[in-house]
Amino acid sequence: MKIMNVEFVISAVRPDQYPVDALPEFALAGRSNVGKSSLINKMIMRKGLARTSSQPGKTQQLNYYRVNDEVYLVDFPGYGYAKVSKVQRAQFGTMIETFLSDREPLKMVFLIIDIRHEPSVDDCLMYDWLKHYEIPVCVVTTKADKIPKSKWDKHVKMVKKKLGFQTGDYHVLFSSETGLGRDELWAIINQTIAETSEEAEETEEVSIEK
C-alpha cells in the first residue's frame, strides 16, 4: 500500500472521544514493549509518528492514526506490565472491553506476540476475549529478525499451540527491522475492508427489497 498521508488524530479514553467518521478501524493489542508502535511506524513508513519507548506501560490511551483518509490504526495500551498500578490496569481493562464490545467500525484486531517467547497468560486471555466477542483476529508474530529463519516454523507452532489458534484466523510473521510481513498485513487490511463493504452493500440491497 502506498502511503500518501498519515495523521495522528487523538488519544482517546472514552467512547465520546472516538472518531465519528466511521472509517474502518484495525486495532493493535499486545504486551507492553512487544513492539506495537514500531510495527505501526513500519506499516505507515514513518520513523517516529508512533512513539516508541523503552519504558513499558507508556501508552495509556487508544491512539488513533488515520492513514490515507481511508483507515485507522488504533494502538491499544500494552498489558501485563507489573509496575502499572492495579487501578490503572483496571481502567485499561474497562476501556478496552468497552471498545471491543461495542465499536462498530472495528474490523479486526492484530494480536502482537513476540515470536521469541511463549504467549503469556494475558496474551491467551486477549485472544479468548476476541473470540468471545467474535472479532476477527490476526496474530502477528513480530521480532522475527531476532531469531534464525530456520527456527521460525518451530516458534510459530509454539505460539499457535499456546493460544489455541483457531482455523480461519490470520497469522503474519513480522519484523519492524526488515519490513517482513508489512505487505501481507496491508493486503489483509484491504481485503477485510473490501469484504465488509460488500457485506454492507448486500445488507442494504436486502433492506431495500423488503
From TrEMBL:
Domain (EngB-type G): residue spans on this chain: 22-195
TM spans (from-to): none
NCBIfam families, alphabetized: GTPase_YsxC
Pfam families in UniProt: MMR_HSR1 (PF01926)
Keyword terms, alphabetized: Cell cycle, Cell division, GTP-binding, Magnesium, Metal-binding, Nucleotide-binding, Septation
Highest taxon in the source lineage: Bacteria
Function: Necessary for normal cell division and for the maintenance of normal septation.
InterPro entries the UniProt entry points to: G_ENGB_dom (IPR030393), GTP-bd (IPR006073), GTP-bd_ribosome_bio_YsxC (IPR019987), P-loop_NTPase (IPR027417)
Organism: Paenibacillus lignilyticus
Protein name: Probable GTP-binding protein EngB
HAMAP family in the cross-refs: GTPase_EngB
Cofactor: Mg(2+)
PANTHER family (UniProt xref): ENGB-TYPE G DOMAIN-CONTAINING PROTEIN, MSS1/TRME-RELATED GTP-BINDING PROTEIN
Similarity annotation: Belongs to the TRAFAC class TrmE-Era-EngA-EngB-Septin-like GTPase superfamily. EngB GTPase family.
tRNA processing in keyword set: no
